[in-house]
Design brief:
- By secondary structure, the protein is of the alpha/beta class.
- The chain folds into three domains: 20-128, Immunoglobulin-like, CATH 2.60.40.10; 134-227 and 280-478, Glycosidases (TIM Barrel, Alpha-Beta Barrel); 481-565, Golgi alpha-mannosidase II (Immunoglobulin-like).
- It has eleven helices and 32 strands.
- The strands form seven sheets. It has an eight-stranded parallel β-sheet with strand order 23-22-21-20-16-13-12-24. Strands 1, 3, 5, 6, 9, 10 and 11 form a seven-stranded mixed β-sheet that branches.
- β9 and β10 form a beta hairpin.
């Protein structure tokens, strides 16, 4: 304060009371969890059902939902619960948009003369795009398929197999290592994908592929690489300040890498992007460029009603990813966002609660034995109110089914189990239907894949996908009951839709060499066992069962699917 300057008191804010108090502990019963940190999720085309019960009789109670999920903007609004009985109130809410929202209730004992806030914290709800519910994804390996014209030819084959989404590995211009994940230019299509017979540029040819995919009802999953870039990329040459320095490297740029089997693997062809640069204007320029990259490719995915995939999210910059998701959701409200993110359950729950990730990548290939796979599938169901997983047979990084499980035909029972015993999102990698013995290498331009026998398993994959598409119960969580008596080789379960209108009985033999007789416990099909009609979903043949136990003999890698009807 300068000499002679008088002290001026700052203003005191006014507290305006809304004449509402906190409710008493134990006054009401809620149909949802109020444990701190808990949240749940619904699809945009599904209503949110909530129920409140007063524990004591009141003269004229009312209940109101206070939430931000009912408007197309950020406005908060109130909606009154329906009174079912004197003490029971219910509400059905249809969210207007996808995103992360919150709600709280307030209640009145005297028809609105006095009001009380529920004393528990706000409850968080993630509203997922409807497109995330039903995913059968085929991973196409561009470098092993040929040019864009060849990709278009594959569309008919992929559609006939019953897949509704294609995961394209990154198609950006590749750096010297010729890895799709080592980009030389984030906004250009690699020259090897251009059909020389077509006078248009590679990007224009790709856009034609997008149009054809959409016409065939195929959605696109575009792969986004946000952590690193090629060592000789235009970014490395023109904006080295965007990259993390490392004086131990000859070019002073830090290499990217990952942990595998408790060992750090350094990728010599990739340098790490520095989202924590100390200069604000550099950070802003960098993050804006990377956002534009994500938006550029997400545009094609969104146009087809598809998805983006965040590569290696567990190594990503959390702050940037959070900001990017908000940017993507604002521009493309119905875009599905999926991430490769391997961590413990607590970390996954925390990340899902803070960042609107619609799907995480499951890792069923790490559970090769029937007992472990059964437990893993049960875990996916149990956690489905909070976390949703894409549960594919393998990925482009893992081995082929023949490498992982001993025989190529092991793909059938395992895909059957993951697609029909999971929660709705699954897929295979190119070549699985042809019985490849080793994973197809995707690093290197103009590689050609050799297939032992064309379409060796296509018919069975088509049948599995047909069932997956036919029954909504395959796209629901917590509707599975294993009935195999914890058999060492066979997984068997009953799935039932939420309304109880449809039931299916499934069984798959994971053993690649031996047949197994398994006794299935059918008591879940009825409170008191009556005659139950089982119809083979593949052959259409029916038979009656009048016992609570049924013996089934299943050949090596065999599967059974029965539609249940009285």
């Amino acid at each position: 304060m300068e000499k002679g300057q008088r002290l001026i008191r700052t203003s005191i804010p006014v507290l305006n009371s809304k004449d509402i108090k906190l409710g008493k502990e134990g006054q009401i019963y809620r149909s949802w969890s109020v444990t701190p940190g808990d949240f749940f999720r619904i699809y945009k085309d599904e209503p949110l059902y909530l129920e409140v019960n007063f524990r004591e009789d009141l003269k004229a109670p009312k209940v109101v939902l206070y939430t931000d999920m009912l408007s197309k903007g950020k406005e908060w609004s109130e909606i009154e619960f329906e009174k079912v009985t004197p003490n029971n109130f219910r509400i059905s809410v249809n969210p207007k948009r996808c995103g992360i929202f919150q709600f709280k209730i307030k209640h009145s004992p005297d028809n609105g003369k006095s009001w009380f806030w529920d004393r528990v914290p706000f409850t968080k709800v993630i509203v997922d795009p409807a497109g995330a519910k039903d995913i059968r994804m085929y991973t196409l390996l561009p470098t092993a398929t040929g040019n864009i014209t060849a990709w278009k030819r594959e569309l008919t084959h992929i559609k006939n197999l019953g897949f509704n989404m294609i995961h394209l590995l990154p198609i950006t211009a590749m750096d010297e290592s010729e890895s799709p994940y080592a980009a030389a230019d984030l906004f250009d299509v690699d020259h090897s994908f251009r059909d020389a017979a077509d006078k248009r540029g590679a990007l224009e040819q790709f856009e034609d592929f997008v149009e054809v995919a959409k016409e065939n009802g195929i959605r696109l999953c575009m792969d986004l690489v946000l952590n690193h870039i090629g060592i000789k990329s235009n970014v490395a040459r023109m904006k080295p300040e965007w990259l993390i320095p490392d004086r131990n490297e000859s070019d002073s740029l830090m290499r990217a890498g990952c942990w595998h089997m408790n060992k750090w693997i350094k990728w010599e062809d990739l340098v790490k992007i520095n989202y924590d640069h100390p200069e604000e204007h550099v950070r802003k320029e960098l993050t804006e460029y990377m956002k534009q990259y994500a938006l550029f490719w997400a545009n094609y995915a969104a146009y087809t009603g598809g998805m983006v995939r965040f590569d290696n999210l567990h190594s990503s910059h959390t702050g940037f990813i959070y900001d990017l998701i908000l940017t993507l959701r604002k521009k493309y409200p119905e875009l599905v966002i999926q991430a490769e993110f391997f961590s413990d359950s607590n970390t996954l729950l925390k990340t899902a609660s803070e960042c609107e990730l619609n799907l995480l990548l499951a890792n069923p290939w790490e559970h090769p034995f029937a007992e472990d796979l059964r437990d893993y599938i049960s875990y996916l169901h149990e956690i489905s109110p909070e976390l949703l997983f894409l549960n594919p047979l393998t990925t482009h990084d893992t081995g082929a089914p023949a490498q992982l499980y001993g025989k190529a035909e092991a793909a059938i029972p395992r895909y059957f189990a993951l697609a029909l015993m999971g929660t709705g999102q699954t897929g295979i990698v190119q070549g699985t239907e042809h019985g490849v013995l080793e994973k197809i290498e995707f690093i290197g331009r103009n590689r050609s894949a050799a297939y032992p026998e064309m379409n060796r398993y296509s018919d069975m994959i088509r049948k599995i996908n047909g069932l997956h598409n036919r029954f909504p119960l395959f796209h629901q969580g917590r509707n599975i009951r294993f009935v195999d008596g914890k058999h060492g080789a066979v997984l068997a379960c009953i799935r039932e839709d939420k309304k109880g209108d449809q039931k299916v009985l499934l069984a798959a033999n994971m053993d690649t060499t031996g047949e197994h007789m398994v006794t299935l416990d059918l008591t879940p099909l009825a409170a008191v066992i009556e005659k139950v009609k089982l119809t083979d979903a593949f052959s259409g043949q029916s038979f009656m069962v009048d016992s609570d136990m049924m013996d089934v003999l299943i050949e090596p890698c065999g599967v059974r699917a029965f539609i249940v009807g009285r």
